[in-house]
């Protein structure tokens, strides 16, 4: 039985949730409403198997007058990251009609703030655990809307496989849905080239705000975006990996161009990213299915077929061993949606 279907009503208890990171193939970058986190564009993502967050929320162990507490990978969370967690907890408390403070314990099996989607898995897991611990009975769509308020990309991590976040224009209409793909998600994988797993200098939140406010290329990226999404969805329906890869690569490179044209410029790419992007082109020329995507960080994710992912990983490792010494690689396949246990 899905534990979210029958939460304990009324009791302020403890729950643990696991949510997997997702990588957008067609990106979200820019908000129409900062408060509600309504995006300017819809987005399409693949939830991944090996990158995830497990979070426990306990509404019963602190004194009623205490403030919320959180640890991430054993370290106390404070400042802005804690405020973001408290903001989501407040939404859950308000909805459940409770006011107990929470103790949050989270473990990221994904590098934090490195452009590998820790905020997506982190806030999806927090939402699932907090909702069940607070005794709420929420549908996946409601969980997606709530997770969105913590971090936009988290709305998609409620679902496994391919997910689409409909931009919408209000809290009610901005949520993710699973994409009906007849198993296509299992046929595609990402070779993740971890070039730097340290935290980025500009957070996604600040980076997208600056891009929207100052980049002369932002509007043209948004104008192209609708076509990229249409192409990508048609490619999924037709199980056409090259068509999906071309749309994904064009969308990501356009987003990075818009970022770089911001004032002051945002450049998440480093020399290793450029070498990796060239290697992906070379892999394609050598006959591999291989298309690059990048998020708010230097790491490069390579979309490929599940069948050839291991072979492509080895090829890229060998290609980049001199120019990017110390590069780590992970082959990520389609992963599951949110799970919650008491
Ligand atoms: P990333 O590329 O890792 O998603 P972002 O800049 O988008 O980077 O988000 C990183 C922020 O997400 C962190 O600074 C923190 O506020 C939040 N975050 C990451 N992991 C967790 C977690 N497990 N629980 C709650 N918040 C998290
Ligand atoms: C480049 O979801 O982390 O990964 O909503 O401000 O928390 P906030 O931003 P976040 O941004 C993700 C941006 C991206 C593209 C994507 O995941 O669609």
From TrEMBL:
Gene Ontology biological process terms from the UniProt entry: isopentenyl diphosphate biosynthetic process, mevalonate pathway
The keyword Lipoprotein belongs to this UniProt entry's keyword annotation: no
Residue ranges occupied by any Diphosphomevalonate decarboxylase-like N-terminal domain in the UniProt entry: 19-176
Entry keyword set: ATP-binding, Lipid biosynthesis, Lipid metabolism, Lyase, Nucleotide-binding
One Pfam family recorded for the sequence: MVD-like_N
Keyword rRNA processing: no
Catalytic EC class: lyase
EC number: 4.1.1.33
InterPro entries for this protein: GHMP_kinase_C_sf, Mev_decarb, Mev_diP_decarb, MVD-like_N, Mvd1_C, Ribosomal_Su5_D2-typ_SF, Ribsml_uS5_D2-typ_fold_subgr
Ranges for domain Mvd1 C-terminal: 191-321
GO MF term set: ATP binding; diphosphomevalonate decarboxylase activity
GO cellular component, one term: cytosol
Family according to the record: Belongs to the diphosphomevalonate decarboxylase family.
Protein name per its UniProtKB record: diphosphomevalonate decarboxylase
Lineage: Bacteria, Bacillati, Actinomycetota, Actinomycetes, Actinomycetales
Underlying gene: mvaD
């Amino acid at each position: 039985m899905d534990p979210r279907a029958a939460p304990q009503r009324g009791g302020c208890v403890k729950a643990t949730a696991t949510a997997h990171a997702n990588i957008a193939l067609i990106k979200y970058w820019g908000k129409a409403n900062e408060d509600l986190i309504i995006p300017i564009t819809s987005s399409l993502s693949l939830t991944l198997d090996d990158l995830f967050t497990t979070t426990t929320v306990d509404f019963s162990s602190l004194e009623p007058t205490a403030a919320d507490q959180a640890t991430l990978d054993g370290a106390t969370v404070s400042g802005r990251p804690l405020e973001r967690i408290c903001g989501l907890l407040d939404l859950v408390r308000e909805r459940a009609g409770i006011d107990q403070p929470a103790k949050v314990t989270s473990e990221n099996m994904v590098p934090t703030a490195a452009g590998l989607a820790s905020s997506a898995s982190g806030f999806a897991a927090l939402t699932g655990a907090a909702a069940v611990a607070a005794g709420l009975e929420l549908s996946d769509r409601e969980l997606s809307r709530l997770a969105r308020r913590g971090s936009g990309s988290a709305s998609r991590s409620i679902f496994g496989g391919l997910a689409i976040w409909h931009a919408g224009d209000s809290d009610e209409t901005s949520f993710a849905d699973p994409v009906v793909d007849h198993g296509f998600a299992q046929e595609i994988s990402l070779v993740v080239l971890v070039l730097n797993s340290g935290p980025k200098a500009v957070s996604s939140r600040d980076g997208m705000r600056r891009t929207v406010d100052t980049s002369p290329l932002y509007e043209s990226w948004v104008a192209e975006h609708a076509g990229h999404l249409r192409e990508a969805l048609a490619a999924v329906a037709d199980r056409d990996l090259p068509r999906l890869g071309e749309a994904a690569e064009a969308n990501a490179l356009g987003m990075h161009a818009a970022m770089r044209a911001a004032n002051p410029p945002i450049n998440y790419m480093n020399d290793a990213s450029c070498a990796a992007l060239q290697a992906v082109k070379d892999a394609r020329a050598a006959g591999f299915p291989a298309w690059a995507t990048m998020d708010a960080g230097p790491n490069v994710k390579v979309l490929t077929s599940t069948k050839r992912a291991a072979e492509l990983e080895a090829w890229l490792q060998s290609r980049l061993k001199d120019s990017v010494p110390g590069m780590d690689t992970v082959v990520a396949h389609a992963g599951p949606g949110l799970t919650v246990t008491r």
